[in-house]
Amino acid sequence: MLLSRGRACVSSVALLVAVIVTPAAAGRAVTVASFVGLPPDSSSGRVLMRAFRGELDSGWVALEKRAGVGWAPADTQRHDFHLVEAAPAGESWTLELSIRLPPPMRVPSRTQPKPNQPPERQRVSNVRRSRGFVVVATVRPPVSWGRPVESAPVTYPLYFADARRIVAATPDLPGGAYTFPWEDAGRVVARAALETLLAATRELSFDRRVNLAPATRIESEP
User: Fold this and answer.
1) Burial class of residue 20, CB neighbours in 10 A (0-12, 13-18, 19+)
2) Does residue 103 or residue 189 have the better pLDDT?
3) Of 9, 148, 156, 190, which one is least surrounded by beta carbons within 10 A?
4) Taking the model in full, what pTM does it have?
5) d(C-alpha 125, C-alpha 36), whole Å
6) Residue 74 in contact with residue 66, Cβ under 8 Å?
7) From residue 13, how far is each of 51, 53, 178 by CA, in Å?
8) Pairwise CA distance, residues 89 & 87, whole Å
9) Interior CA angle at 71 toward 69 and 73, to 5°?
10) 3-class state of residue 184 by DSSP
11) Angstrom distance (rounded) from CA 81 to CA 62
């Protein structure tokens, strides 16, 4: 069952669960044990989670292949993973997910305060202070799998190269600020989760990896 980020967020996460849960289908069931880092704004969270569910349940994933020292778009690969709300203990693949979002930019209200009234508090907008985005995925197999699986968290440091910058860079904000693409982020989280699952089941060949576009990986130094 999808868990909340904390007791204070139980109701909002329960709403997100209602958005993404569908009846079980044939294939390998996947439950989300935790999803940490969802935005506090429930509408943004719903957009992200709906895209996450749709992408993971699509039944296929786009790949990249090694091309010299880099990677290039490749074919697609079928898979039979699908999300379920809950499953008997030990009978599903389990995902633990965490995302790290760039800090929001607070935008001052454009309305003038009324006489003898304090100014309005700055509102938190959909504007973020960078294009960066980090996904951390941990996979645990069902009891029936019967083979060793790497259970260490896998970290995907990313950025959205095409994110629209709507606040110019300043000395106080060297990188400017960007509109954060919540729908794209949901798809990217699903693809990162699928790469982790397919790597655990050894269904990705050594020269393939999942295409996380429109996010760009921040490659580690060789």
Assistant:
1) buried
2) 189
3) 148
4) 0.79
5) 21
6) no
7) 16, 14, 26
8) 6
9) 155
10) helix
11) 15
Locate 69 and state its tokens: 């020292």
Q: What six digits make up the tokens of 215?
A: 């996010």
Tell me the pLDDT tens digit for each residue of 187-209: 999 999 999 999 999 999 999 99
* Residues 51, 181 contacting (CB under 8 angstroms): no
Q: Name the percent of the chain in helix, strand, coil, to the closest 5.
A: 25, 35, 40
Map out the domains of the chain with their CATH numbers. 7-100+133-157+182-213 (3.40.50)
> Position of tokens 């909340």?
4
Residue with tokens 């996904």: 135
Find the angle CA(133)-CA(77)-CA(26) to the nearest 5 degrees: 100
Residues 6+ apart with CB under 8 A from 4: 10, 12, 13, 14
Name residue, tokens 């967020």.
Answer: 9
Rounded Cα gap, residues 40 and 209, in angstroms: 31
Q: Look at residue 209 and give its three-state secondary structure.
A: strand
